[in-house]
Design brief:
The chain has a five-stranded parallel beta sheet with strand order 3-4-5-6-7. A two-stranded antiparallel ribbon has the order 1-2. The chain is globular. The model is unreliable at about 150-155 (pLDDT under 50). It is built from 14 helices and nine strands. By secondary structure, the protein is α/β, with parallel strands linked by helices.
């Protein structure tokens, strides 16, 4: 079996499928994703390469699901990556390899399972390789035609749906489906509507925090907050100088637990919008409540005012790591509230209002996420500006923009 190169912090290490199984058994996680042979060379891929990808992926799943002993299955749930790239026939062939009955040595190796899918708890799809292949195919089609195209838009979610459906047609419908690499809530809603995806990663929300974005959106959309005309941005670039003196909370769609003057808005439960007062201060040495004469801790939870945009803006401009922690906590809380809203709408009247709520969300929020693209550019400037004289340069830039902090 081939080795895999692992890019670690300071070196490159090699890993075999057997190593992956050994480490998984040692760590005993709740879920393990089986290794998959996903081509990462420039597409398109030949039929031979796709066949090799399917065969390797199937073999690596078999090596992982192999029971520890005849009476002891592996102690974790296994998710299988749905292989086949952008070829409908290849994706169907891979799914067939999971449900077809095994015979001979292959069956003996995974006994007591009669086919691989019996040992698989769920399925996973990574959108990035699919989007890359679809984009390459579109570029090739344009190059072969007489059309003159300056730039092509990136492939949309709709182009991926038939591919994933082809993989799932022959697989059980009761197992969870995980999709990685979504970029917007709009993509998430489309995948739920068209494929019935159950799980998503939160990388894009964490990436937004990395570049100074505070997310600000709700699902379902509040009817009283719907504005006609221009769509609403789904976040705020807190690094922007416009927020230097903005003392409002991170999101307009939510309120902090201490803000009782805005009962119509839902509460953002994150530690940035609803920070909790510690029950007692830290004591050192002989110091304690009795020694210092401190009052007893409160019997109920006390919420403090939310952190403001101006405060987080200051942290970002002074390059405090806590700024990204605060934004990550907030963004993940907004995403969790989004998924709670998804579950609520699906359960309401058996999902009768789902399509209406999705359409309203699409019409309300801008899927382009222009604020995120602008933030990436601004944050790149931050990385380039580090070093001697940085503070003076930033101060001069603030003065030029007319948003300088008073001395």
């Amino acid at each position: 079996m081939p080795n895999f190169d692992l890019f670690c912090a300071q070196f490159i290490s090699q890993l075999t499928p057997e190593d992956w199984r050994k480490y998984s058994l040692a760590c005993r996680p709740d879920v393990v994703v089986a290794l998959a042979d996903t081509p990462f060379t420039n597409p398109p891929y030949s039929q031979k390469r796709l066949t090799k990808s399917i065969e390797r992926s199937t073999a690596w799943i078999a090596s992982l699901v192999k029971p520890v002993s005849p009476q002891e299955p592996v102690p974790f749930a296994i998710f299988a990556h749905l292989a086949g790239n952008t070829s409908i026939s290849a994706r169907k062939a891979f799914s067939n390899s999971l449900v077809e009955t095994l015979y001979g040595p292959e069956a003996e190796a995974v006994k007591p399972y009669s086919h691989l899918d019996q040992a698989i708890a769920g399925y996973t799809v990574d959108l990035i390789p699919l989007f890359l292949s679809l984009a390459a195919a579109e570029q090739r089609n344009v190059a072969e035609s007489d059309a003159v195209v300056q730039s092509l838009p990136p492939p949309r979610t709709e182009a991926v749906v038939p591919l994933v459906k082809a993989s799932l047609e022959q697989l059980p419908i009761g197992k969870p489906r995980l999709v990685n690499s979504t970029q917007t809530p709009h993509e998430i809603l489309r995948l739920i509507s068209s494929i019935g995806v159950d799980l998503f990663d939160a990388h894009w929300a964490q990436r937004a925090a990395d570049v100074g974005i505070a997310l600000d959106f709700r699902f379902p959309v509040a009817r009283d907050g719907v504005a006609s005309g221009k769509k609403v941005e789904m976040g705020h670039n807190i690094y922007d100088l416009a927020y230097a003196h903005d003392f409002s909370p991170l999101a307009d769609s939510f309120r902090g637990a201490s803000q009782t003057d805005k009962p119509a808005k839902p509460i953002c439960i994150c530690a940035a919008c609803s920070p909790i007062q510690p029950p007692s201060r830290l004591y050192h040495g002989v110091d304690n409540e009795t020694y210092s004469g401190d009052p007893p801790p409160p019997e109920k939870t006390t919420y403090l005012p939310p952190f403001t945009r101006a405060y987080v803006h200051h942290l970002l401009h002074t390059h405090e790591m806590s700024a990204h922690s605060i934004l990550a906590i907030h963004n993940l809380a907004v995403l969790e509230t989004f998924f709670a809203g998804v579950r609520e709408v699906l359960h309401r009247d058996n999902g009768a209002s789902w399509e209406e709520e999705v359409a309203l969300f699409m019409d309300t929020y801008d899927e382009g996420l222009q604020v995120l693209e602008e933030a990436k550019i601004r944050w790149k400037e931050v990385d380039l500006a580090r070093g001697k004289g940085r503070l003076a340069r930033e101060k001069a830039k603030e003065e030029d923009s007319g948003v300088a902090t008073p001395a």
